[in-house]
Q: What sequence folds into this?
């Protein structure tokens, strides 16, 4: 298969296959910042920095890295983010059910994997029919409408998925949003997309241009900006439209299938997309995609793909949700574009853990409507034209400064170089040499055997590492201190105001009222803004244990691992004492640590080493905080709070579904049997785990008993 025909996901997977864990970790750390900025610009500010195709490409590479390196799953991964925090100027509304995003597919193979993955999860054989729905993915602004006793009570944007902006007054001006319903459940949250047609967008910009007003970049910006007007009369004058495609909280089921539910919404008076289809097979899904793509240019509004959803709502319920996306739906995105440009230079960036990452500096080029000026180069092997095992990539063509390179944006986290035009290479172009000393601090940058990344040996004495660690500490998934972002961290660090995380929590006493140097006197600050920052810092002295663990920025420890550790140990004291006791690999504490499902020996050693190396800083920080234990589950299920282990072959549901069901009922699922195990569910083929459970006197049940226990028999 040629590069042009190869699926984007295959290409990304092949490139990710050359990365080792350290290199991949550095890449996601760097790229998460780019995505967070794009998220805020797109969802909150209505001023996107990149196109939807580029943003999707970022998420795809993240997914590929996390698939290959599960222990690198982290809180600021694009796969863990939904939208952006609500903008100032609007009231806030908490969604009764979170508004999620969608996983993406970029090829027919990806869609086939989606379908087969559902069959595996639900243990449904290939010969059993499985229906899906397909509909255009509108490029607009997500909106949730809540009706109580058939009356519209509020409208909210998606925001960050949990909390959105109150745009009720503006939504009431949209002609296609009913104020009252007939025959609806007492409580009904209808979700859909606000958008603007091409004709209305052109007309709006023409009117604005005639009076010297704001010119919108595209219909999506125009729609989002129109809905977010503080004056509803401005919104009323804008030609907004609304398609309904989903629902949130309901007091009674809408229907038994996705298809019937959409028809029910249509009967209630909502506009639904006329291209909505029910598909009986993968072939029908792909045919519908081709049909919609062929009509894309003539629809009169922007779409960027096709959304597939499992039709049976009972099966959707069984599949459940990931942290930010449902397992039962996926967006099949339309392809992006390629462009050729000049590689003007290669810069080296130093990440939080010292890895040196090369970045291509490009002569700016427009790719799919977005100006691209840089691209990731991964590591020195990638630049040299080989993967981590020494096999050639790009048919062995290396990348040199001065080359003409092909840039693409779909299928990756950031823009990437796809190929090199050797015919245009200068005769004196020199091979790139990776520096063997850190460009930030001058310490040796070593590449250990078996590793594809060079790493600065300066540790926290390296300014790049120190600053990146502090930025990570205040990032949105960690402490998320309002008013203390990357720019403020850089400024405070540069002036010596903050050197360690603990210093953040002593800013008021060192630079507050009555001190020789005061924050209010710094350029860009005043008494009000300084006090606001001090208050925001104090608000974060109460921090959930899982967020604190993630904030430390330890290698291999992302959001998922942090949550696992918090759930397993329960309290800060237990976690700290256990990790320090686990220094001995023969100890019970170490055995308990690696028994956590998802924690292996490499991750365990990283945790232990991190707590050892920074024990003094960690203890000093903890002394400033009130660390909150994970909230106990309110579930009344018979397994709530218990530790379960699954072993052997499950026949009526997949292992993944069993684990998801157990966790949804409040149980902890461990990977190995220990004295803390409460229950072992053993299918055919159970071996050493069943033997050990018997030795420890742990209750063992089979799959039928398990299903009966949770009421699913």
A:
């Amino acid at each position: 298969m040629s590069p042009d025909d190869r699926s984007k996901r295959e290409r990304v997977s092949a490139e990710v296959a050359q990365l080792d864990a350290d290199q991949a970790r550095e890449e996601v750390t760097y790229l998460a910042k780019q995505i967070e900025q794009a998220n805020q610009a797109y969802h909150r500010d209505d001023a996107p920095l990149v196109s939807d195709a580029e943003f999707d490409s970022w998420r795809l590479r993240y997914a590929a890295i996390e698939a290959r390196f599960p222990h690198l799953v982290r809180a600021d991964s694009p796969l863990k983010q939904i939208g952006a925090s609500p903008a100032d100027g609007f009231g806030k509304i908490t969604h009764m059910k979170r508004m999620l995003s969608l996983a993406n597919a970029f090829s027919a193979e990806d869609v086939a994997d989606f379908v087969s993955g559902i069959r595996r999860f639900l243990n449904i054989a290939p010969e059993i029919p499985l229906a899906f729905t397909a509909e255009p993915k509108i490029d607009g602004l997500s909106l949730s409408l809540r009706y109580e006793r058939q009356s519209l009570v509020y409208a909210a944007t998606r925001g960050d998925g949990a909390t959105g902006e109150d745009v009720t007054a503006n939504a009431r001006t949209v002609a296609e949003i009913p104020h009252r319903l007939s025959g609806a459940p007492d409580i009904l949250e209808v979700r859909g997309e606000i958008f603007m047609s091409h004709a209305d967008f052109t007309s709006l910009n023409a009117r604005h241009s005639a009076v010297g007003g704001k010119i919108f970049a595209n219909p999506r910006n125009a729609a989002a900006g129109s809905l977010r007007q503080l004056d509803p009369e401005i919104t009323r004058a804008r030609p907004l439209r609304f398609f309904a495609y989903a629902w949130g909280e309901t007091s009674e089921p809408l229907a038994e299938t996705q298809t019937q539910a959409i028809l029910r919404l249509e009967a209630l008076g909502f506009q639904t997309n006329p291209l909505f289809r029910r598909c009986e097979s993968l072939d029908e899904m792909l045919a519908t995609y081709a049909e919609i793509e062929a009509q894309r240019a003539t629809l009169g509004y922007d779409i960027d793909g096709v959304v597939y959803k499992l039709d049976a709502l009972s099966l959707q319920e069984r599949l459940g949700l990931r942290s930010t996306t449902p397992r039962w739906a996926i967006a099949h995105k339309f392809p992006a574009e390629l462009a050729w440009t000049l590689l003007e230079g290669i810069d080296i960036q130093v990440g939080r853990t010292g890895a040196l990452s090369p970045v291509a500096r490009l002569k700016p080029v427009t790719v799919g409507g977005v100006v691209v000026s840089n691209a990731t180069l991964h590591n020195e092997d990638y630049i040299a034209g080989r993967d981590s095992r020494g096999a050639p990539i790009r048919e062995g063509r290396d990348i040199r400064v001065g080359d003409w390179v092909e840039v693409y944006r779909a299928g990756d986290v950031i823009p990437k170089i796809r190929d090199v035009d050797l015919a245009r290479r200068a005769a004196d172009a020199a091979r790139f040499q990776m520096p063997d000393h850190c460009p930030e601090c001058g310490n040796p940058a070593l590449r250990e055997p078996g590793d594809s990344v060079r790493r600065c040996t300066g540790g926290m004495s390296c300014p790049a590492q120190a600053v990146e660690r502090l930025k990570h500490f205040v990032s949105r998934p960690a402490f998320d201190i309002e008013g203390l972002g990357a720019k403020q961290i850089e400024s405070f660090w540069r002036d010596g105001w903050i050197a360690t995380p603990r210093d953040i929590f002593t800013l008021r006493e060192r630079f507050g009222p009555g001190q020789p140097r005061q924050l209010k006197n710094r350029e860009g600050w005043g008494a009000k803004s300084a006090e606001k920052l001090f208050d925001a810092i104090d608000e974060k002295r109460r921090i959930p244990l899982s967020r604190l663990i993630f904030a430390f920025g330890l290698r291999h420890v992302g959001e998922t691992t942090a949550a696992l550790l918090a759930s397993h140990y329960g309290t800060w004291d237990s976690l700290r004492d256990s990790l320090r006791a686990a220094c001995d690999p023969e100890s019970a504490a170490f055995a308990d640590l690696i028994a956590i499902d998802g924690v292996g020996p490499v991750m365990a050693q990283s945790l232990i080493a991190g707590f050892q190396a920074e024990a003094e800083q960690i203890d000093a920080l903890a002394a400033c905080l009130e660390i909150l234990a994970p909230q106990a589950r309110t579930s009344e299920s018979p397994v709530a709070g218990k530790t379960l282990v699954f072993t052997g072959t499950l026949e009526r549901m997949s292992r993944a579904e069993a684990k998801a069901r157990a966790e949804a009922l409040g149980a902890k699922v461990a990977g190995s049997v220990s004295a803390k195990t409460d229950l072992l569910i053993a299918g055919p083929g159970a071996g050493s785990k069943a033997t050990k459970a018997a030795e420890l006197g742990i209750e063992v049940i089979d799959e039928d008993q398990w299903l009966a226990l949770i009421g699913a028999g």
